[in-house]
Automatic annotation (TrEMBL):
The keyword Cell membrane does not apply. This is Putative ribosomal large subunit pseudouridine synthase. CDD domains: PseudoU_synth_RluA_like. GO terms for molecular function: pseudouridylate synthase activity; RNA binding; tRNA pseudouridine(32) synthase activity. InterPro entries: PsdUridine_synth_cat_dom_sf, PsdUridine_synth_RluA-like_CS, PsdUridine_synth_RsuA/RluA, RluA_PseudoU_synthase.
Length: 232
């Protein structure tokens, strides 16, 4: 088996984590883009959501992660029992996650489903790949919100589509690779074609935001429906 070397060094993230809600059991946050969810093995990648929050909420642990470039909603457990209860909801797919994204180009259909298995390939690390034979099942739904043109600095017009993405599974890079498979990568996605169109090379961020998170509070049993509007 090939050895995987992660040489990525995250640039400093000066944006703060916004704490939207917290109680004795969990914390709900808005993660800024450009911040790791969990600290890396390299000491230069110490800064992360977990590293920052554990100083405020000792003993807190991550239930799920967002990619480095993705912003938006995350729920953090404040103890092991809550972590186990929330992880069970994620594994049983009773948690609803909704994302907002800007895709390159104009989609033909107003809605649809992307059903394409995803596999890890050490030779391509950190990229994932579509592989119907060895990949794990992965399914995402999309709905078009708006089609428009973004004017670039040189006055060229970049066609973009604002979509709502709902992953039904939770594979690594799922939404990013599924949008590439659709033929319309997420604007600013450096791994899956979102910086290949003329004028997109210097896009400041990945245009993907976790805008909704629905789950059941493990203690109160209340159905939490968190919403957080994206700013792009």
């Amino acid at each position: 088996m090939s050895t995987i070397y992660d040489t990525f060094i995250a640039p400093p993230c000066h944006d703060k984590i916004e704490i939207l809600y917290h109680d004795d059991h969990l914390v709900l946050i808005d993660k800024p883009t450009g911040l790791l969810s969990l600290s890396g093995k390299n000491p230069q990648n110490l800064d992360s959501v977990h590293h920052r929050l554990v100083q405020i909420f000792p003993g807190c642990t991550l239930v799920h992660r967002l990619d480095f470039g993705t912003s938006g909603l995350m729920v953090i457990a404040r103890n092991k029992a809550i972590n186990a209860a929330l992880c069970q909801q994620f594994s049983q797919r009773t948690v609803t996650k909704v994302y907002s994204a800007l895709l390159c180009g104009h989609l033909d259909d107003n809605e649809g489903i992307i059903d394409a298995a995803i596999a890890k390939d050490p030779a391509l690390f950190p990229l994932m790949s579509i592989c119907p034979i060895n990949g794990k099942p992965a399914r995402s739904r999309y709905q078009v919100i708006a089609r428009f043109y973004h004017e670039l600095e040189d006055n060229r017009l970049l066609p973009l589509t604002r979509v709502q993405l709902t992953p039904e599974t939770g594979r690594t890079h799922q939404l990013r690779i599924h949008c590439q498979q659709l033929g319309h990568p997420i604007w600013g996605c450096d791994l899956y074609g979102g910086r290949l169109l003329p004028g997109t090379e210097q896009t400041p961020r990945l245009m993907l935001h976790a805008s909704e998170l629905h789950f059941v509070h493990p203690i109160s049993k209340e159905r939490i429906k968190a919403r957080n509007t994206c700013t792009f």
